[in-house]
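Lecture 7 notes: from sequence to structure.

We start with a single chain of 346 residues. Read the sequence below before looking at the structure.
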Amino acid sequence: MSIGIAILGAGIFARNEHLPAVQACSRLSLKAVYSRTKTSADKLAKIANKPVECYYDSPTSRRSLANLLDREDIHAVILALPIIVQPDVIKKAITAGKHVLSERPIAKDVKAASDLVKWYRYKDREEIWSVGEDFRFMLAMAYGAEQVKEIGGNVVTFSVRFNGFIEENDKFYQTKCKRQSSQHQGGSLLDEGIHFVAGLRFLLAAASESITQISAFTSLLQNHLAPIDTVHATMQISNGKNGTLCVSFGAQFKSDFEIQVVTDRCSVTVMPSKVVVLSKFVNQKKEEIVEFNFSSGVKLEVAAFAESIQAGKPDSRGTPEQAFMDLKVLQTMLESGDEKGAVKPI
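Now the structure, written as tokens:
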């Protein structure tokens, strides 16, 4: 039997990623969509290529979010809502007996995230709550983690390097302006930078390592990306070795993306559609380059969510605890930056 699902949130990400992912998953059957306004909900439903019911807050009707959550044929929901309102909707959906896949970050800050995870874990629940982090499902990232684990060795260093530029008229930025207001920390670093924290943590975990301390400096390169758009951090992991994370969304004339983990047996460098593995074979260095068709990872993430519902067991890549630690690392960087590089424990 297919899983009846609804998409809550009708923005660009829902249209470009969530809807195609649901349509590509044979385990799922889209039943409804919800948005704050009827116009937005109708727009998403129109491109669904099948009859889909619309729910909305404005204008007032008997098609509210509560009415959607009352439906017995809807077993799960996917959320892509503003950070400020998302935790409350997660609670409402789970209380209504729905499985939930919510978008990252898990909440606006560590306190809100901790409260939400404690609420969810307070009692045994049948409802599965996963937090979306598509970097953990990207083909290149998954292969990179496999190589780190398979080749093994002790981590000696690591690095994250991303430079990009979010223009003021960028369509995604325009939809996120309210989420990047003074109500929450970090601006684009919270909304998008958390991907790179998750990717690094995923690769380090393959070597049984975790981040323990951070010293960071933050800055603002582009005024429209206030409060900050750039972070340069030095991190220490559980074995005492150090590495760096440098992420900027305000670098107009620089563009790169790679996450690298180096052990005493290999180096694994992950890029969006390529993984480079350097290792030793019969006392000689061996380089392997594996290329992938680029995928955001959302389709695999949604498919894994559906599979976890049918199996009755959450996928370890999407647990609330994973998302909480992603946010904790990111917030620690921001707090260190506020204190001009003060060393902060995780």
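The two ends are 43 Å apart (CA to CA). Keep this in mind for problem set 3.
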